[in-house]
Design goal:
Length: about 50
């Protein structure tokens, strides 16, 4: 259902992950798992990143 707010959560998560990763030379990708959810992978290229 396109009106379900839960449908926008993966897109929002990806947008946030990219916003965090990009300034640190990284990237983010989302892989849908049909019927199960999604996997969000964030890669940081800058060794100076701290949590």
């Amino acid at each position: 259902d396109a009106d379900n707010p839960a449908d926008s959560i993966p897109a929002l998560a990806l947008r946030l992950a990219r916003a965090v990763a990009a300034p640190n030379g990284g990237s983010a990708e989302i892989t849908p798992l049909p019927g199960r959810g999604s996997v969000l992978q964030i890669t940081f290229a800058n060794a100076q990143v701290t949590a």
